């Protein structure tokens, strides 16, 4: 499982935890997150996220 | 003979300019776009300037691409280190000095500037504002070998910097003429939670006075406060506020108020001129945050591509990057009654109307975990 960080605001999506409040179950891989997903903290799109080392 | 169509011109290559063009290219791959910027055109995220010391990032490391890379990626022309000096709305021309450059549509995305301070004492070159990547770079260079930092202002940027610079190993004092930190953003209990958290890290607050005079002495800089106290420091950061840049808009005859007045389609009072991001006042609202800027970029990209679209502002909660006591706040637009629960630095403050509907909130510490659930209850700013 990997983590992805919003390059604009620093919000982190952890695949292991998912983001249930945004409808993403724990274990949802980044590749399976819908393309119209937007960062819950700053509103940028999925292409503004980068994989971060754990 | 066919005439070459004038480009869409975007003034500014900050988050507003680059995100707009990125969204525009999803709608329209062909129309020529010219971006003009007074700086070097490096792509960076301004909010990240508040966490650079915690993350150990230099200015170069915060830059995600230079102007050349961005021009290629977005299929646009970028003129760097170029300042637009005038706009002729009737002729659809901007001026770079004497040089006229025609546009089909013009987007003002030149941001906001720090509120200027006039401080007596002749040491004002030691007072820094950090409003862009170059400022950040200059400030980091200037910090070399220094230990003590005085921050003027206890608002969002002042508090974020206090946390970040303390994490960076500096001894930080804050001076602000307010009775609490984050005035106008947080109710008092939530503000004191943040203040206590920062004090726990070693930040010293002087709330009430302002800096009247700064002088250079052999012990370093000495700041004289309006309450008669003195603070010795090595360097001063001014974080007393930001305001939309208006000069050129005023000169061009556009209507301005706090920001450049635009309607819900982000059009100014002149046809084919739009404003986006920190310089814009959208339907009476100036919101100097990323989320409204992104909503604006998506809508304006469609409008520029020939599909007129009004911007929708849902709830716009603001994250304040004070990791010692995280904060998220959605300031209520309407009057309501606050209900506040707190335990140590964890505060959950909810503002509701007479009927019990949520109007806004302020959450600190572990309570920030409630934000996504609460966001669904918040009213939209305008839909």
From TrEMBL, chain A:
Domain of life according to the entry: Bacteria
InterPro entries in UniProt: Rubredoxin, Rubredoxin-like_dom, Rubredoxin_dom, Rubredoxin_ET
Residue sites binding Fe cation per the record: 6, 9, 39, 42
Cofactor annotation: Fe(3+)
Pfam family, one: Rubredoxin
GO MF term list: electron transfer activity; iron ion binding; oxidoreductase activity
Residues annotated as domain Rubredoxin-like: 1-52
Biochemical pathway: Hydrocarbon metabolism; alkane degradation
Keyword line: Cytoplasm, Electron transport, Iron, Metal-binding, Oxidoreductase, Transport
Any one of the GO BP annotations: alkane catabolic process
Cofactor detail note: Binds 1 Fe(3+) ion per subunit.
Gene3D superfamilies found in the cross-reference section: 2.20.28.10
Function: Involved in the hydrocarbon hydroxylating system, which transfers electrons from NADH to rubredoxin reductase and then through rubredoxin to alkane 1 monooxygenase.
Family: Belongs to the rubredoxin family.
Descriptive protein name: Rubredoxin
Organism: Oleispira antarctica RB-8
